[in-house]
Amino acid sequence: MPAATLRAWERRYGALAPSRTEGGYRLYSERDIMLLIWLKGRINEGMTISQALALWQYQERQAREQTPPAEANTEIRADLSDVRQSLAAALLDFDECKADQILAEAFAIFGFETVSERIIVPVMAHIGDRWHRGKASTAAEHFASNYMRRKIEALIAAGARRQDGPVVVLGCAPNDWHELGLLLIYLFLQRRGYNVVYLGQNVPAEQFVDEMRRLSPDLVMISATTEESVPGVIAMAEAIAAMDGTKPAFGFGGSAFNTNPALRATVPGVFMGEDAHAALANVSNLLAERRK
Amino acid sequence: MPAATLRAWERRYGALAPSRTEGGYRLYSERDIMLLIWLKGRINEGMTISQALALWQYQERQAREQTPPAEANTEIRADLSDVRQSLAAALLDFDECKADQILAEAFAIFGFETVSERIIVPVMAHIGDRWHRGKASTAAEHFASNYMRRKIEALIAAGARRQDGPVVVLGCAPNDWHELGLLLIYLFLQRRGYNVVYLGQNVPAEQFVDEMRRLSPDLVMISATTEESVPGVIAMAEAIAAMDGTKPAFGFGGSAFNTNPALRATVPGVFMGEDAHAALANVSNLLAERRK
DNA sequence: AAAAGCCTAAACAAACTATTGACAAACCGC
DNA sequence: GCGGTTTGTCAATAGTTTGTTTAGGCTTTT
């Protein structure tokens, strides 16, 4: 973001008022940076700068009617592991504001793919791990995963939809409720122009094949995060394989197949890989092959 | 719709009179947009623009002579039900593109609160109803509710966060997985400057009180959508009531308490009302009272 | 002290909008 | 079919918004 633009905004709208050094140099606060990142988001969504600023001021005014002001400041984090650590700490502290700051900064610096795979996934793994060892409460784990989900879904909602790309159906196995990894795949696929139909948690096996016949997707991917969900994946794979006419390809994945690789052989379908990136590559290979 | 056409209509018929910015740019109000959509509908039905405008002006004149508010209301409601119907159809068809179009239009005309309460909630109720009656597949219901959830979460993510407002904890009862209504409340509270900690689906009762002691929120709200979840709500309410020191207020709600109002008396806490708007008013009352 | 960077102020350029007038296709009554 | 009207679109010119550049001076760094 060019410095001249910032100064123009300050001069023309007065919305940004950084403090100055003795020499008169601008010192932007964390709050200023947060505003700038937010403004950039609105502009990317098609607003003009004047509209975005008007909306910000409107929201500020509305929020102020309810609450008195306060002050907060943190330092800039430039290193991935720093970011991971402070993000995990903020989430375990239920501090959404701080988490937002950290993530917004990280998105601006590292881009969404890096942030998704190298920050969001590890942080959630870390929090999940602490939870399993009894060192983090269930409430904290819930809060963190809902927070992350919201962030990913916002990215998905902000992206452009395509209806002419290959149709890919995504869902969690029956009785499987962990959708974070699947949402990342959704995000990546969507950004690459696939037409994703997202079915979410706990997709029941009944009626599933009928619906797939009606929808006739190119690929169905089901995720399982626990060993108990694997039989459901197998059932769905077999049901798809038993379809008559043109069947979709069947892919599967999820942490159940990473912790116990032997399970991969039990499912009649294509294992999509251990992480979202691998899955992405496999989707494109699989669909290229099918088209032949 | 080409801009030149709009200007031609304004110049030739004077029917559209958007206000202007200082720079002279046109600012179309929601009313203008509603008129345009109505006109477009007439034109698609084969009317010419002059006929459509004459009809509009005739209806306006007649409405003014009788009871203006009633007439205006039915007009809007008719439009809303159109939107609801086409949105439900698009979702049952897995057509995310079309649903996006419809919703974007609706947001522009009606604003996010009206859309949330008068479109999203009824459409989901309608789809859920069809699903219960076996007229819609589980996959379609999953797709629709994930879609809606994504939209609401995107709105939440786009809003400005505040850390200095009153802290409100939101969660679904243990083993309750329906979070759409709760997300709406989250959205509304956030826009009004509350600091919301969202715990999502299936909040377990264990450790919950410890976590609340650490977080010391002003209000805890738990939602239950089925009768089976109500005992969980009661357990949490009692646990909160048994806390020592400063306890948060405890509120509850959800469709379980709407279909069977007798259940409300079984929970030791404040019933927050039947819909998101009522909940909002109750939150603000409750917190104002507590502050005294 | 020289180089590099930031400051202010003003100007510039690209993209967008407004106004007016014109044009061609569709439509109407005859 | 034919003149006249309606209607969507376009072009030319002027004004607005907004990001970027320029010019001259001050601050910081090396």
Q: Could you characterize the architecture of this molecule?
A:
Two copies of one chain form a homodimer. Chain A is α/β, with parallel strands linked by helices. Helix content of chain A is 57%, strand content 9%. Chain A has twelve helices and seven strands. Chain A has helices spanning 3-13, 30-44, 49-64, 80-92, 96-110, 112-132, 138-158, 180-191, 208-215, 230-241, 255-259, 276-291, and strands at 19-20, 26-27, 167-172, 195-198, 219-223, 249-253, 270-271. In chain A, the strands form two sheets. Chain A has a five-stranded parallel β-sheet, with helices on both faces. A two-stranded antiparallel ribbon of chain A has the order 1-2. In chain A, β6 (249-253), α11 and β7 (270-271) form a beta-alpha-beta unit. In chain A, α6 runs antiparallel to α8. Chain A is elongated and about 75 Å long. Chain A starts with a helix and ends with a helix. In chain A, 38% of the residues are buried. The model of chain A is unreliable at 67-77 (pLDDT under 50). Chains A and B meet through α2, α3, α5, α7 and β4 of A and α5, α6, β4 and α8 of B. The structure holds a DNA duplex (30 and 30 nucleotides).
Provide a brief overview of the structure.
With 292 residues, chain A is an alpha/beta fold. The first copy, chain A, has helices at residues 3-13, 30-44, 49-64, 80-92, 96-110, 112-132, 138-158, 180-191, 208-215, 230-241, 255-259, 276-291, and strands at residues 19-20, 26-27, 167-172, 195-198, 219-223, 249-253, 270-271. In chain A, the strands form two sheets. The first copy, chain A, has a five-stranded parallel sheet with strand order 4-3-5-6-7, sandwiched between helices. A two-stranded antiparallel ribbon of chain A has the order 1-2.
